[in-house]
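User: My advisor asked me to double-check a structure prediction for Large ribosomal subunit protein bL19 before group meeting. I don't want to rely on an old file, so could you generate it fresh from this sequence?
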Amino acid sequence: MKVLKEIEEGQKKKSVGNFKVGDTVKVFSKILEGGKERLQGFEGIIIKRSGHGARENFTVRKLVQGIGVERTFPIHSPRVDRVELIKSGKVNRAKLYYLRKRIGSRAIKVDDAVVNESAAA
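Assistant: Sure, here is a fresh prediction for Large ribosomal subunit protein bL19 from the sequence you gave:
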């Protein structure tokens, strides 16, 4: 077990940002196309955080032309470049699966205290 913990600690990033469920974030992931690498942004609301240590994940949901799109990112993945905090949301749940049935800003109360805080994830 000690060997596994040492390997996981080596895989973890130093700073992952301070974001929680209900926050609106923009995740920049590295995409390989041909021989080139570029960053692609995915902006939405965090509906779930799960796991712990090097295996921690978070799921971001956004609406594209009225259709919900969800994407799950490993927090400590080398493919995730950074996570920008757009808005801080105040919610009373750990998992926001009910947002799958709701549309628009009726679902979350948004605090305007934090705007455009960038953190390398």
